Amino acid sequence: MLRHPAITALGASTIVLLVVLVSLASPLHSEFYHLIGPVRAVAVPVFLNFAAVWLVLSLLLAWGRSHPRFNSWLWSGLGVGLSWKIITNWYVLHESPVPVVVKTIFLGVVCLIFFTWVAWRSRIRPILYRAQQLAVPILGFVALSGMAMIVQSVFFTWQARHLNAPRPLHQRRGDSASSPRRGRIIWILFDELSYRQVYEHRYQGLELPAFTQLARTATVFTHTVPSGVYTEQVLPSLMTGDRYDGVRPAAAGWPLEVHNRSAGMWETFNPRKTVFQDALDAGYSTAIAGWYNPYCRILPEVLDRCFWTNHTVVPGDMYPEQSILWNSEQPVIGHLVNLARSFHLFPRQNGPSNPIRFHQQDYRELAGAGDELLRDPSADFILLHMPIPHPGGIYNRRTGNFEVSHPNYIDNLALCDVYLAHVRHELEENGTWDNSTLVIMGDHSWRVKLFWAKSPDWTEEERIASNNVTFDDRPGYIVKLPGQTTPSQIDEPFESMRTRELFDKLLKGQIKTPEQLRTWVTQRP
User: Sulfatase N-terminal domain location, by residue (predicted)?
Assistant: First the structure.
C-alpha cells in the first residue's frame, strides 16, 4: 500500500508544502495568534495547493509506471527537487537563510550526478533504480505524517474560524466617567528600545532631540532589568507583575495560557488581574493602540477602546488581507521565484521588500490610532505599543521619509524620536502635556546576538553601534511625572517586572515627585 503512486505523491506533496502545513498544524498556534486577517484567507489556499500538487504528482507517477523512460526522467526531477526542498525546509523552519556554500555544494552534486549519468548511463541506471525503490517506502511513511498534519490543520482551522471576530469591550458606566481634573497616564512602549543606544552611547551623528528634551524634565532609569526577550511573553508579564517565560494560545485566539516562571506551571492569563483592571477600578478610561500582540482578543473586558495590528507575510508568501484566489497562486509563484533566485536566475526587485512595507503600514496605522486617543482627553490610561525601533528598518533618518534603501535599527531610533516629538506636540496642543504622566520604555533591549546580527540585512552601522555585536540587555525606561521640571536619574537596578506596581502607585496618586519615585525604587522591602 505504501508503494501506491497516490501515497508516494502524498509524501512528496508533504515535503513540498511542509512549511505552510507546519504553520497551520503546529499546536503552538503562533501563526493563528498573530494573524490579523480571516483564517480562511490563508488556510483554504494551503489546502487547495496541497490537493493540486498531490493530484498532479499522483497522475504523473501513475503514468510513469507504464512508461519507463518518462518514469526515469520524472524520478530524476523528483530526486533533485525534493532534496532541495528538504534542505530549504530545514533552514526556513530554523528561520535562517540557506548559506551560499550549501547552494554551491548542492548544485555541484547535481551536476556531477548528471554528467556521470551521461558518461556511464548503463552503469548508473541500476543505482538510480535502487535509489527510487528506496525512496518509495520512505515517501510512504512521510505521507502518513502528511495525513496527520492535514487532519490537524483542518481541525485547528475550524477552531480558529472566528479568530478575529470582534469581542465586546468593557462598557463604562456613566457614573464612572473619568474626571477631567485628573492627569492622564500614557504608557508608550517602543519595541526593542535600548537604553545604551538612546542615552549612553548614541551612534556617532545620531541626534535624538525629543529624547534629549524629555530627559531634562523626566527620570531616566539607567539600569533596567528586563522581564524577558520575547514581546509576547514580556507584555503579559508587565501587565500582571508575574514573570512569564512562555505563552500557549488556543487556536481560537483565546484564552491565553502563560507559563509562570516563579510557580513553574501553566495558568490562564486573566485580564482582571492586570494593570488595566487596576485603572478601571481607579476610575480611569482604558485604551490600547498596539502592535504584534492581539490585545483586542486577550484583553477586551478591561479595555474601553482597542486597536491592534500586525501586517505580515505568512508562509507561502500569502497575505491575510488578500482573497483566497490571490493567496492560492502565491505558493506556486513563490516556489518558482525563490528557486530561480537561489541560483541567481531571477533578479531581486528594487525598492522596499514586503516585510518593510508591512512594517511601515503597521507604524502608520498605529500612529493614526494613537493620535485618536491622544486627542481625546477622556482616554486617560493609554498604552501605545509602537513597532519601532524593532528591525527591520522602515525610515531614512538622512532624508526624513519612508523611502528606504538600506534602513536599519539606527534609522528606526530616529523615527522613535520623531514619534516622541509628535506625541508631545499633540499633548501640548490639547493642554494635557504638563499634567500627564508618561512612562516610556522598551519591552526588551536590542537583541543583536539573538537575532539581528545573523540577518542578511545587518549593516556596518549596526555592527559599530552594537560594539561589535555586544548585547546590552538594558531596555530604555523613562518616567515623566505631572509638572516635573527638573531632570532625575536612577542608577540602581530596577526590575521592569515592577511596572504594574509603579502604575498602581501612579493611579492612586502615591508617587507625585521624582523624590517619591526614587524612594519607592530604592526602598522596596
Answer: 185-447
